[in-house]
Design goal:
This protein is α+β, with helices and mostly antiparallel strands. The protein has 11 helices and 10 strands. Strand 1 and strand 2 form a beta hairpin.
Length: 333
């Protein structure tokens, strides 16, 4: 693919690189695979280090400013001396493009779910929040939860979108399996009692949000990627999502250590841990809905932008959601 054809709506010109302070054109442009949201390229230069070019997908029904969220979050992180993330170098909001430092490494696998990865992840979050008051200008994380009710509303919103999809196989699964599970969970949860567990504003942390091995590069150390959803959030959502993201599961034997470490960022550690225990099954239903995002128009457009096979993805993701919903945490995963 030619460098000037990366964006469909407008060809890139030399001024983009000149504005970024780059005088030479790249000698090679390599598309990087693995993501389903954006287009990402490695730009190689004759005498300078490689750069990463990210072309962001934006849909009218998805108002989150992904480029701004990621770029500003990484600016804050690098200003704090954090060196395990890409450095933000240049952004062009009109063309929805950004340049970052290129990190050479291997995508993490389940074999990388080790003590050192968990420890490094805790230290990364701790470093992010060491001077969190300096990040007041940053956005809230995607689907941030300032109260317990927000966790339930996030699921209801996602279910409502899925129920509007006219796909018989999807609707069979939702009505026969997913909704009964969700309704049972809601009936066993006393929301009035759970309100006592609402987080305080002071408890909020800065978090990558979409955080885990699936967004980690392994080199001489761990490098963390993908901050489009990053921002301020309840630490409980970070705890739950870290273990519930389905792409590369984190063994549950690390849950207590990780949860207690992240909960210690809060004023009331025990309250935060109890909220994590209560919200964990709610977040699992949410992630089951996320797995089914491929059925939504917005997600279909995003995957077409990233050149993902839609029919195969739908069939695969529906089976994945069925297996995920009834999966049981185990130390052997």
């Amino acid at each position: 693919m030619d460098f000037f054809d990366i964006v469909e709506t407008s060809a890139l010109d030399l001024s983009f690189l000149e504005e970024a302070g780059i005088s030479a054109l790249p000698i090679a442009q390599t598309p990087l695979t693995g993501g389903a949201n954006n287009r990402v390229f490695r730009l190689e230069f004759q005498n300078d280090p490689s750069l990463l070019l990210k072309s962001y997908f934006q849909h009218p029904d998805d108002a989150r400013p992904r480029l701004q969220s990621e770029f500003e979050f990484l600016k804050f992180a690098t200003a704090q001396g954090i060196d395990c993330v890409p450095k933000p170098l240049y952004k062009n909001t009109e063309k929805n493009l950004a340049l970052y430092s290129y990190i050479d490494g291997s995508l993490a696998t389940e074999a990388d779910a080790t003590d050192s990865f968990i420890a490094a992840s805790v230290q990364f979050l701790k470093h992010l929040n060491r001077n969190k008051s300096q990040g007041k200008h940053l956005l809230f994380a995607s689907e941030s939860c300032s109260r317990v009710e927000d966790y339930f509303q996030a699921v209801e919103k996602r279910l409502s979108k899925l129920l509007a999809v006219s796909d018989p196989n999807l609707q069979d699964f939702i009505h026969a399996t997913l909704l009964p599970q969700w309704n049972h969970l809601k009936n066993t949860q006393c929301k009035t009692a759970l309100q006592a567990l609402n987080p305080s504003p002071e408890d909020f942390i800065l978090t990558p949000s979409d955080f885990g091995l699936h967004n980690t590069l392994v080199s001489k150390k761990h490098f963390y990627l993908d901050f489009e959803y990053a921002g301020w959030d309840d630490p409980v959502k970070t705890i739950c999502d870290f273990f519930l993201q389905p792409k590369i599961p984190i063994p549950q034997r690390y849950f207590s250590f990780f949860a207690e470490a992240i909960a210690s960022f809060s004023r009331n550690k025990e309250k935060t841990l109890e909220r994590a225990r209560q919200m964990f099954p709610v977040c699992k239903i949410k992630w089951c809905c996320i797995i089914l995002n491929v059925f939504l128009d917005t997600e279909q457009a995003r995957r077409r932008f990233a050149a993902v096979d839609l029919p195969l993805s739908k069939e695969k993701q529906l089976l994945f959601a069925k297996n995920y919903l009834f999966s049981t945490p185990t130390d052997q995963r």
